[in-house]
Amino acid sequence: MPEELDELQLAFKEFDYDQDGYLHYKDVADCMRTMGYMPTEMELIEIIQQIKMKWGGHVDFDDFCELMGPRMLMETAHMVGMRELHCAFKQFDCNGDGRISFEELKESMKTLLGEKLKKGELEEILSDIDLNGDGTVDFDEFVMMLSAR
Hints:
By secondary structure, this protein is mainly alpha-helical. The protein is 70% helix and 7% strand. The chain folds into 2 domains: 2-81, Recoverin, domain 1 (Orthogonal Bundle), CATH 1.10.238.10; 93-148, Recoverin, domain 1, CATH 1.10.238. The chain contains 7 helices and 4 strands. The strands form 2 sheets. Strands 1-2 form a two-stranded antiparallel sheet. A two-stranded antiparallel ribbon has the order 3-4. The longest helix has 32 residues, at 61-92. The radius of gyration is 23 Å and the shape is elongated. InterPro entries: CaBP1/2/4/5, EF-hand-dom_pair, EF_Hand_1_Ca_BS, EF_hand_dom. Keywords: Calcium, Metal-binding, Repeat.
């Protein structure tokens, strides 16, 4: 995680306006946003309360890392999850055009299940997943289908 540590340090220094080694609680939200984190209002309230109660309204770099560490791990887990979803999608998208056609679904299901599904079953599966009705399944529809399960 050296890159993440460098990113934290750069962001910290940018918002440590008086270079005293501390961030004021009011600057933490902007600092997080420059790193690509978009905390909700509830998260910000929670973070600000923690900074005020635990550290007297200011955080040093170590405390900032303690605050940001779990958030960075969650983001990394999310990125890994998306990578796995893309790999799964590619298993179905045989021609790599970014869409799963009826034929690709038929072949993939045969490979995965080891048996052919009836045309009606495949059409039903496709119509359930194909949210925009274009006759194919794109990555977003694929993710929506998996999220709904």
